Automatic annotation (TrEMBL), chain A:
It is a multi-pass membrane protein. The keyword Oxidoreductase does not apply. GO terms for biological process: L-valine transmembrane transport. This is Branched-chain amino acid ABC transporter permease. Belongs to the AzlC family. It comes from Salinarimonas ramus.
From TrEMBL, chain B:
InterPro entries: Brnchd-chn_aa_trnsp_AzlD (IPR008407). This is Branched-chain amino acid transport protein (AzlD). Keywords: Membrane, Transmembrane, Transmembrane helix. It holds the Pfam family AzlD.
Length: 239, 114
């Protein structure tokens, strides 16, 4: 029986057993990740991407929603403005990761620097959620978030390949609704975020502002404008 | 004329497939900075209650802002698909079933000519 006061003073452990625990805790989220990764591969094939470019996006960016949106913004011929716009939209879609990183900071700041930088590379919604629950329950092993993240990265990159192969075979994606995989998946992800009507009022504001913006302004500015309007509505809400 | 030559080379590069990898690198950099900056942000930002509420409203707001305009543009088949996906997910709490139901609804709606 370890002395709790002494344990508190020690640096939190980072073990292989912790990494395996992280992987086990992430298993329920695996079908969603595989479906989304496969959907991205299929969508990229539909857009005429080759397999290496598709795999590079999954391996280096490793952020599904921004990869999907990037497919819409991709150019035959690039320019600095279109590249910077792609970067700005990517940062906006993945801006939630700033907040996830901030929320998990009290735990991961104890990691050795090199491992911490690696850990950020595989920080996504799924392992963030798993680690947040684990640490909230009193867990201290930093292997959990890292192991879960590493597994998710491998699954994500691997899932891209069968999706790419299947997507290249489908000649009429619209007939199967494949052009709408991204919005359908996002709608599904909204369900676990639902915590009753009152916390969802900012979402309604976000949706209305995004719709209006999409009518008035070309391009994907509606995501940024709508999301910020929703956050502002959240800030102004009582309690 | 050095400037002209440089912009000529750049124009050639931007049309080359290799420029796609520059785009990947820029996306990867933007995403990594988002992931790594939270810890710096945290040590500077005081989370007041309004900021906390804004942060908590952000994920759902991003999702809704992304899908609503796309659905509105794609028409009734997309709206049916989203409704089927959300309803299925709410009932069975299984992502795969939600996505499958959504895509099936879109396919059927389009088959019916919607």
């Amino acid at each position: 029986m370890p002395d709790p006061s002494r344990q508190e003073a020690e640096a939190p452990p980072l073990t292989l057993a912790g990494a395996l625990t992280g992987m086990r805790l992430t298993l329920p989220l695996v079908p969603g990740v595989v479906v989304f990764g496969t959907a991205f591969g299929a969508a990229a094939a539909q857009k005429g991407f080759d397999v290496w470019l598709t795999l590079s996006l999954s391996a280096f960016v490793f952020a599904g929603a921004s990869q999907m949106v990037a497919l819409e913004l991709w150019r035959e011929v690039w320019s600095w403005p279109t590249l910077l716009y792609l970067m700005m939209v990517t940062a906006t879609i993945n801006g939630r990761m700033v907040l996830m990183g901030a929320a998990i900071a009290p735990h991961v700041k104890a990691m050795p620097r090199g491992i911490r930088l690696l850990n950020f590379y595989v920080l996504v919604d799924a392992n963030w959620l798993v680690a947040t629950r684990y640490h909230a329950d009193g867990g201290r092993d930093l292997g959990v978030i890292l192991g879960a993240g590493a597994m998710l990265w491998g699954l994500w990159v691997l899932a891209t390949i069968p999706g790419f192969l299947a997507g290249a075979l489908v000649t009429d994606p619209r007939a199967f609704g494949l052009d709408l995989v991204m919005p359908v998946f996002f709608a599904v992800m909204l369900v676990p975020l639902w915590k009753g009507l009152a916390p969802a009022i900012p979402w309604i504001v976000a949706g209305a502002v995004a719709l209006l913006t999409s009518v008035l302004v070309d391009g994907y500015a509606f995501i940024i404008v709508g999301a910020l309007a929703g956050a502002a509505a959240g800030a102004l809400r009582d309690g | 004329m050095a400037e002209g030559a440089l912009s000529g080379i750049l124009a050639g590069f931007f049309a080359h497939p290799a420029a796609d990898y520059l785009a990947v690198a820029m996306m990867a950099l933007a995403t990594y900075l988002c992931r790594a900056s939270g810890i710096l942000f945290m040590s500077r930002l005081r989370i007041t209650p309004p900021i906390d509420r804004a942060l908590r409203a952000l994920p759902g707001s991003i999702v809704v802002s992304t899908i609503l305009p796309v659905a509105a543009q794609a028409g009734p088949s997309a709206i049916l698909g989203l409704v089927a996906a959300v309803a299925t997910m709410a009932l069975v709490r299984f992502e795969l079933a939600g996505v499958a139901a959504g895509l099936t609804a879109v396919s059927l709606a389009r088959l019916a000519g919607l």
